Amino acid sequence: MKHALLILSLFCTIPLVQAQDLRVVAVSPAHGSANVALTTPVSITFNQAINPADSLLIFPLDTLLQQQLSDPSRVSLSPDGRTITFNLTHQADRDYLWVVFYAKSISGNRLAQRYTFYYTTASTAGEHTVSGHLVEFSSGGPGEIYPRLATSSVASWQMPRLTLSISAASSSGQTPPSRLLISQPPTVQSGHLGNWLVLLTTSPSLEITTVARIAVSAADGAFTLDYVRPGTYYLLALFFEPGNLGEPAGYGIYDANQDDTPDALQIPPDLSGLNVPVIRLITTTALEAATLAQSAFQAEASDAQIVFLQGFVDTTGRSFVWNFTAYAPSQDTAYTLEVRGGAPGALKPIMSRPYRQMQPLPLNDMQDSDAIVAAFMNRFPSTQHSGFQLMAGQLYHWFTSQGFLQPSLYPLDPELPIWLVQEWRPLAAPLQGELEYSAAYNLQGNEQVAYEPIRAKAALNAALEKAPSRQEGDGIIGFEVSPFDPFSGKASEWSVDLVAGGQALQIRLANNLVVHIDTLEADWRSLPKLPYPDMVDSDQAADTALAHNATEFLAALSSGWGRLVGGFLGPDYGLEVDANTPLYGIFLTGGDPWREARYFVHMGTGAFVTEQVLTTREAAPASFTGGLRAVYPHPVGREATIEVVLMQSGPLTLRVYNVLGQEVGRIFEGFLPAGTHQLRWQPEALPAGIYLLQLQQSGQVYHRSVVVSGQ
Prior knowledge:
Blueprint: E1 24-28, E2 42-46, E3 56-60, H1 63-69, E4 75-77, E5 83-86, E6 95-103, E7 115-120, E8 128-136, E9 197-201, E10 211-216, E11 222-228, E12 231-239, E13 250-253, E14 265-267, E15 271-280, H2 286-300, E16 305-313, E17 321-328, E18 333-340, E19 343-344, E20 348-350, H3 369-379, E21 388-393, H4 395-401, E22 418-426, E23 434-442, E24 447-451, H5 456-466, E25 475-481, E26 484-485, E27 490-491, E28 493-500, E29 503-510, E30 513-519, H6 538-555, E31 560-567, E32 583-590, E33 595-602, E34 608-614, E35 627-632, E36 640-646, E37 650-657, E38 663-672, E39 675-681, E40 689-697, E41 700-708
InterPro entries: SbsA_Ig, Secre_tail
Pfam families: Big_5 (PF13205)
Domain SbsA Ig-like: 21-121
């Protein structure tokens, strides 16, 4: 979905609904109100004081309201904690829809029933009603349900997440936190047919702009959509699994003629007694989903075999969505498909490279995803596992073709098929960002390599070990990493500048795995070198910063970002130290209003040097906050590298458009961790001209124009 619902949340896990349920008792404007003034505040009142330190999930189905709600000054909580108010500006002659999805009271009670309401700034509301029941879909196995719907916009409707600040005091008398953090969603009891979102849309293709009315089903599946205006509509139902609000875990359509597409409904008259068959999608292991995928591939090409699989799984090794790629030698064609909730989608032909180089996975002779995840959790134990990225195949070909890893740096036998598990663990509040843990296993489940966040000296050692040669005058010039965890002194995405064999190099690491060695056009031989290994490590430097006001600075932030730099920083930051003094710089940034604190520590002795605090962005060097950072070489010839910076982990898509707005290529589609990534692009099929790159990730869209030379 291109634009979606506002989600305001610190999610938590809910047991069975409690006796004293939290409920919405009033909204303003009242449901069905017409001729609402454009500056009317929107208020939601509960029967108990809500807990602002926990969660709010609220969906206003209007992109302009969503933009306004990104301003924390527009949101307030009443002194008794029962009413949340949004101070908004509406548009004339427009209908507005809201959903209250989740809240928790001060006493710990949860919202029992999701709640929707409607109002309009037009002079009158609609006067018609559409009602009926959700019913269980009664035929067809997991691979046979709604073949076209499973790959439609209905089945892939997503909700990007936003954050909310509350400026008033809670009913307990304490000042609530200024930001509600995002974590795992709550368990909401659905009653199988209850708590579904039932939508009346103006198009069978579901987007936020097509939703005309929305309601929440009762426990028995009953629903009523009222205040409907005359027109042609389509009736849809969605259920969002608490563990994955990004994609529906159930869906259904009103389809009386059973052609797998929504039937048009004409209003007037009022409609009642409509039955909407719904299905709840299931999670599967990789090999369970692969069985369905393999059958679909071989229906297209009898010699097609799965060579690559990918999924984001829970702690049981199961997922709602698996992506598979198969290669058919007879056609020299690769195909990809998605198995969503046990239902395979449509096949798509893709470029055969690198899949023609990958051998088929032995699906009958390999460990399944549940066993691999269990081994990983045993290797890296934690009480807060949230999910894992899994891949399987001869991943050397995949990683090197995508430009993630230079071929000579691959740590295993290139022809060894492996399972790869990656987990990104969030930093402790208030810091944003994640640290990566990863491990590779052969297909029988035996660990081959494992990596975890490291400190500065380990990163420098790993970089030097991969330096091609050493001679007098060589050494480390400096390094940088972000995000950085000042509480452990560790990080995952390191960049080290050094001289080796008289040549200037930049070495990039994912933990202690070197992934890129880039030769630079610079002469650093005469520059001073860091005193490695005779230096304090980054944890000691961070401890020194925490002891000199960094702890207090972090405590005052609602959210922030940590960065570590090492080098001869005095001249760059106007410090009153000798220019040849090696320093750590621990930089902490964030807050509203924005602030940045810099703590400098002597790299040789560990002594605290000085502190700088900036209160305006103009005083700080320009920083890149995410998106498409660079394309090189440019203009683009036969091949280019696209540098992408992600502020958080998640699925992304990188597309190419021509000047007519037509999509002419898809460079990458999949899951990537937070950090900097280099994606390889080979536009050999494109004629010379100007093109637009579009990166979509976590509800954000970034663009960059490029010139393709055609040579």
